[in-house]
Amino acid sequence: MSVSLGTPTMPPRASDLSNLRGDRSFPKNAHDGLNNVTQRRNLTKATTTIRNKRQAVIDEIDDWEALREAGSTTKRHVMAHLPELLEQFEAQVTARGGHVHWARDAVEAGKIITELVQATGEKRVVKIKSMATQEIALNEQLEEAGIFAQETDLAELIVQLGEDKPSHILVPAIHRNRAEIRRIFLNKMDHIDESITSEPAELAEAARVYLRQQFMEAKVAISGANFGIAETGHVTIVESEGNGRMCLTLPETLISVMGIEKILPTFRDYETFLQLLPRSSTGERMNPYTSLWSGVTEGDGPKNFHVVLVDNGRTAAMADELGREALKCIRCSACLNVCPVYERAGGHAYGSTYPGPIGAILTPQLTGIDDSHDPNGYLPYASSLCGRCNEVCPVKIPIVENLIELRHKKVSAHKPKIEAGLMGAMKLTWGSAALWNTATRLVFMGRVLGGFDGKITHLPSFLSGWTNIRDTAVPAKKSFRQWFESPEAQALLAEAREQGLPLNKLSEQKEK
Length: 512
Hints:
- The protein is α/β, with parallel strands linked by helices.
- Among the domains are: 224 residues, Rossmann fold; 94 residues, no CATH class.
- Helices cover 50% and strands 10% of the residues.
- It has 25 helices and twelve strands.
- It has a six-stranded parallel sheet, with helices on both faces. A four-stranded mixed sheet has the order 8-5-6-9, sandwiched between helices. It has a two-stranded antiparallel ribbon with strand order 11-12.
- β5 and β6 form a beta hairpin.
- The longest helix has 22 residues.
- The protein is elongated and about 95 Å long.
- The chain starts with 25 loop residues before the first helix and ends with a helix.
- It comes from Corynebacterium felinum.
């Protein structure tokens, strides 16, 4: 089929059904995360462990930076040739007995998958962990049609049984500790009792027993995809538990959901990403299970294979240069694990399937920013711009540069009234020497707000947001310009000229 990836004038955005836009802004959600002491402790312990493991396995590789550059270059090539690569992928999958479906948004993807499941007559499906299916709210769409989707990844199972939402790209239940998981299992699993402890081995065994019969009975499985290979038509999954292998081989029907940007040109390109992804995500040299499939084979694996290619705002992101950079993401979560904002606020604060630094740039690119009150309009500000995310990204996404550009676009399109007035006044003041001189002479009046400790503890009105969380020094009695015009300063300047010293050096000598 012929592929059209939107037009430059109005590319399609993600549908409202997507799990890409929360109900509240990041600042409000972040307060909940900051006040959740248990969650903060869990996140700090988990992300620190993953960071250290990642660094250890990366230090073993002499050409890590060359690998990053190779991954980045490959993904840029994909963005430049996406239509033809997708057509090539479809042709290869079809030639091997598979079926390819195209979905413009979450609604269309959900409809396609629901009809495929209904055609089998089944009311239950098993699922492999998938960001794409979470993004399009697939479980909810299937539930509306009377179909139950059983998550089989351990962390996703914890989230599902706890009636919770994922908070991390790689470890969805990272915000939960062992004691919390034990309570969830006790409440939802009939085959265990109070004798179970919070030891990981016991919890894992409880999950294994809970899922084993469902694996054996399942007729339909739904997966995501880490990559699709255009040259061969392969879809690939890398995982750590083996639940994916069970889902991919036992059911009669397999439905794989893949974002259109997940394509790789050739099978050889896969070599690069099999080195980048495990090290960046779990700190492993190689993931325990690597699965590839491309169609159907008589007597081996599923009898029916479907791939659903999902746009859901990706062509809109491709219309922008930095948006194309964001689409290079391979969902490793390395940027989350080093982000001080994510570690303290937690993944739920972002209100999107994609939390952390990558979510702060990818989500607004996929959905657009509707108005000044759109929760996604706050995401580019969910960063200190420290740059750690840039340093660890395995495909060299310029996350900080994306954040700054998105802030610029947000303010340009939806100029905030108060900030716009303040910035306008500052522009006027800085543009006039007379006004600036007058303003600097009035700064000393801020001393009346200071306390005995030399700090301003509370600024009036909306300015209090600054002083409530920061130490603000009391201004000096005189501005530098006022002091420089004084006889003391002029005498010091004359002495400095006479001795041939800079003014600061002369001041240092006098202080000694």
